[in-house]
């Protein structure tokens, strides 16, 4: 096993500014642009990307990317399938314990929700293994957008989906926001540690630690660049996606970058319309790239909030 003291230092994450919360909700945010400029657009990100008939650029590697030789457990299958939901009797016992000891369940929930359900959502988006059929979302990245199939590419796509969720997490009350972000970051990096040992067969703890530090540096750089794009304009966010997800490929099809930008924007739009309670209970799933998100009216938004509140009370 790796030395826990070293790994813990690798997994530490800075507390992100709450300034993003204000921008996330302001009229000048990218979400407002999505609603005002995209009303007439009916294309999904997948349709946008396939509109282009330019040939996919070939990826040249000094040596072939390292591919998994085995398959590690997903780690979140139970949470993802909802198998951990308690029975009615167990739930009543839990409620009694909570009320008796005045436990802060909003804080305690961050572990199974952020480190379980939302971790599973981030990981599975680009997850693929040799000799196994790709999921529809993985096809979007590797076939439609033409990204290289590699472990590092999976990490970049996972980081992107972490950031999308972190934007909404930072709009939660501050003490819960930190918990949700940290639980998700810890789970992502713990999973990377396990996968490098089991799937990539890296035996040296020192090498694994080195990779984790590199990925942590990339993680912070990605979050900073995506935040800058969110708080400025589409061009800045698209440039950040090009540098990180498209590996600053000079031959990339700009239509593909635009498609990924729209994909990110529609996820943020959906998240912005969710209540804190629904999001905190893990009710969000990423919208598939082959689907379209149509902006909703204020009346529809109110109906959704009422229905969500009713479902959560049942």
UniProtKB/TrEMBL annotation:
Q: Which GO terms describe its molecular function?
A: mRNA binding; ribosome binding
Question: Per its UniProt entry, which superkingdom is the organism in?
Answer: Eukaryota
Entry-linked InterPro entries: Ubiq_cyt_c_chap, Ubiqinol_cyt_c_chaperone_CPB3
Pfam families to which the protein is assigned, alphabetical: Ubiq_cyt_C_chap (PF03981)
Gene Ontology biological process: mitochondrial respiratory chain complex III assembly; positive regulation of mitochondrial translation; protein stabilization
Q: Where is the Ubiquinol-cytochrome c chaperone domain?
A: 143-286
Query: Coiled-coil regions in this chain?
Result: none
Q: Where is this region: Disordered?
A: 44-87
Gene Ontology CC terms: Cbp3p-Cbp6 complex; mitochondrial membrane; mitochondrial ribosome
| PANTHER family listed in its UniProt record | UBIQUINOL-CYTOCHROME C REDUCTASE COMPLEX ASSEMBLY FACTOR 1 FAMILY MEMBER (PTHR12184), UBIQUINOL-CYTOCHROME-C REDUCTASE COMPLEX ASSEMBLY FACTOR 1 (PTHR12184:SF1)
Q: Which family does it belong to?
A: Belongs to the CBP3 family.
Q: What is this protein's name? A: Ubiquinol-cytochrome c chaperone domain-containing protein
Organism in which the protein naturally occurs: Lodderomyces elongisporus (strain ATCC 11503 / CBS 2605 / JCM 1781 / NBRC 1676 / NRRL YB-4239) (Yeast)
């Amino acid at each position: 096993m790796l030395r826990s003291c070293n790994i813990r230092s690798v997994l530490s994450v800075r507390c992100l500014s709450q300034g993003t919360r204000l921008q996330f909700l302001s009229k000048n945010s990218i979400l407002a642009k999505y609603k005002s400029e995209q009303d007439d657009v009916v294309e999904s990100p997948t349709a946008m990307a396939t509109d282009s008939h330019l040939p996919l650029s070939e990826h040249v590697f000094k040596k072939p990317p390292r591919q998994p030789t085995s398959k590690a457990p997903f780690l979140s299958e139970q949470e993802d399938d909802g198998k951990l939901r308690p029975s009615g009797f167990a739930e009543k016992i839990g409620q009694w314990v909570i009320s008796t000891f005045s436990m802060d369940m909003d804080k305690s929930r961050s572990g199974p929700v952020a480190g379980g359900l939302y971790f599973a959502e981030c990981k599975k988006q680009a997850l693929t293994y040799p000799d196994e059929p790709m999921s529809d979302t993985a096809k979007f990245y590797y076939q439609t957008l033409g990204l290289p199939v590699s472990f590092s590419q999976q990490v970049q796509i996972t980081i992107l989906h972490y950031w999308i969720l972190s934007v909404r997490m930072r709009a939660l009350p501050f003490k819960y926001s930190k918990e949700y972000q940290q639980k998700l970051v810890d789970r992502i990096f713990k999973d990377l540690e396990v996968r490098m040992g089991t799937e990539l067969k890296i035996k040296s703890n020192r090498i694994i630690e080195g990779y984790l530090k590199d990925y942590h540096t990339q993680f912070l750089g990605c979050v900073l660049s995506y935040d800058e794009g969110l708080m400025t304009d589409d061009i800045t966010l698209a440039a950040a996606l090009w540098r990180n997800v498209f590996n600053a490929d000079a031959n990339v099809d700009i239509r593909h970058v635009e498609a990924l930008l729209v994909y990110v924007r529609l996820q943020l739009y959906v998240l912005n319309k969710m209540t804190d309670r629904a999001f905190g209970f893990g009710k969000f799933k990423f919208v598939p790239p082959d689907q379209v998100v149509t902006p909703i009216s204020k009346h529809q938004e109110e109906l959704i909030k009422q229905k969500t509140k009713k479902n959560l009370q049942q």
